[in-house]
Amino acid sequence: MQRTRFGDMACSIARTLDIAGEPWSPLIIRDIWVGTNLGLNRFRATRFVREWRVPSNSQMGYSLAASPDGSVWITSDDRLFEAHGSRCDLVTRLGSAVRAVYREPGGALWLGTHEGLVELINGELKSVPLPTSAQPVQYQYVHAMTSDASQSLWVSAIDRGLLRLHEGSWELPDPGFNLPAATPTTLWTDTAQRKWLGYSDGTAVLRAEGSTRVFGPAQGLRVGPIMVIRGSPAETFVAGEWGLARFDGRQFRTLSASRSDAFSGITGIIVRANGDLWLNGNRGVVHMSADAVNDAYDHPQAKLRYDLFDIQDGLPGYAQQGEDAGDVGDSLGVGRHAIASVDRAGAGVVGG
Predict the structure, then answer these.
(1) Which among 28, 95, 132, 280 is most buried, taking Cβ atoms within 10 Å?
(2) Rounded to the nearest 10 degrees, how much is the dihedral formed by the CA atoms of 249, 306, 286, 276?
(3) Hey, is 255 helix, strand or coil?
(4) Is 290:276 a contact under the CB 8 Å cutoff?
(5) Coil, strand or helix: which one is 49?
(6) What are the pLDDT digits (tens) for 73-116?
(7) In terms of domains, do 260 and 306 share one?
(8) Half-sphere exposure in the Cβ direction for 149 (13 Å, CA)
(9) Do 135 and 89 fall within a single domain?
(10) What is the DSSP string of 193-238?
(11) Based on the domain organization, do 149 and 220 belong to the same domain?
(12) Do 78 and 197 reside in the same domain of the chain?
């Protein structure tokens, strides 16, 4: 086999290895330390690769929705992309910035904009404006969506509150549901058709089996303004600015960001089929094995075990925080990252 000398390569690190290294040096190149006038640096291979076909200067951030066929829908301002494998194609430009995206279990893709909704089904786009408001509205936009067993779409819109789109007509939630009057910051429906609503005051509401349960600090939910809710009927995670809480069907237990700032400002959650947890937060993307998650809640004084992926792993930016952080749901802002997953069995899971 013909071998190229390190000294003949254009890479400065390779030329250095020609002087100080051995033929097997690239296998341990991660252990190279380099001192410069700006400090000491360690070589570290990146684990994330940026999708260059999606603009990096999105003013409205990014929203993601995964499909069972392995594709991921991506929005950037008014653009809609579809990524599948190594491909990422621009599908359309809507003319209005997208603040939220939701894929129904039945296959329809819903995009939330300042004007209302856009439905994409079977390759066709259909606009669904928000209902006319009885009061003047200066600024509105859809920022969270979910569906229910009747195939109705629940929509949370800034300055409009919680709305329900049922068989093509808009309506308000049934007053008998006894839901808070505030606009939810996030919506989610689990596979048992239980509906979760999160609010900026740190309250979470569970609507299931004809009843409404409200959770807050008195019930162990202490995460601050709620940004995202995900999980399964057996285990639900609620995240916010101050940490991550887990609901086991009976009570909440909170993993406070005071134990590690890697668990602050969480805006995206993925719960894998094996129980592993992926989080998108202030520090970057966090991965915890199922055992590490259990240990974190069962042993509050134990050291947390997790993997943190940040700019050193090729991940630019951070989860969006700021004055409207409670209003963005799964959308993340300029130069920041969103998170989505498609498991090998084909089931898509999404988090902001």
Answers:
(1) 280
(2) -50
(3) strand
(4) yes
(5) coil
(6) 999 999 999 998 889 999 999 989 999 999 998 889 999 998 89
(7) yes
(8) 10
(9) yes
(10) --EEEE-TTS-EEEEETTEEEEE-GGGT---SSEEEEEEETTEEEE
(11) yes
(12) yes
